[in-house]
Amino acid sequence: MRAIIRLIEGLSVGGAFLSAAGMIFIVCLVVIEIFLRSVLNTSTLVSSEYGGYALVYLILTGLAYTMKEDGLIRINLLTSHFSENGKRIADIISGILGAAITAFALNYTVQMVYETWDLEMTADTIAETPLWIPQLAIPVGLALLLLQIIAFIARRAINDK
Q1: Distances (CA, A) of 79 to 56, 66, 68, 73, 94
Q2: Domain of 48?
Q3: Model confidence pLDDT, tens digit, residues 37-68
């Protein structure tokens, strides 16, 4: 069980690196756009579009790592009064609910990406980006998050914080 948890946490770290790459991409895109506008009096014409895609990408690929590092907001108003065993049970129940919601969202986002790909939809911009490409970040990020939630449940079930 612990080996599977370590594998999932490794995937979460991989997602964090992808998230960081998205952030670096946005910074480079902004620097290039500033240079082109101020020095060459031209534009990439796609910086805001691709910057937006990268923002969604970096947020979603970083969710699992954020959860792994306990960086997501948790409200402990009720659980602060629970015993350690009660907190563990509450974490497992909330993890199961979170996994169910994430799996539901993952299912529909996979369908969305498939339909976008099947219909050959493109962005209504000058780049005409195939929309399935930036949309793919959503199910990838949700899949990583779902795996991390499962690891969270497993850690709490074996009482390994």
Answers
A1: 32, 21, 20, 14, 11
A2: 2-157
A3: 999 999 999 999 999 999 999 999 999 999 99
Calpha distance 80→90 (Å, rounded): 11
The whole-angstrom separation of Cα 115 and Cα 17 is 29
**Between the CA of residue 126 and those of 16, 45, 145, what are the distances in Å?**
31, 7, 33
Report the 3 state secondary structure along 72-130.
Answer: CCCCCCCHHHCCHHHHHHHHHHHHHHHHHHHHHHHHHHHHHHHHHHHCCCECCCCCCCE
pLDDT band at 132 (very low <50, low <70, confident <90, very high): very high
* Average of per-residue pLDDT values in the chain: 93
Structurally, the chain folds into a number of domains equal to: 1
d(CA 140, CA 57): 9
Contacts of 21 (CB under 8 A, 6+ apart): 58
pLDDT in tens, 139-152: 999 999 999 999 99
Measured distance CA(110)–CA(139) in Å, rounded: 6
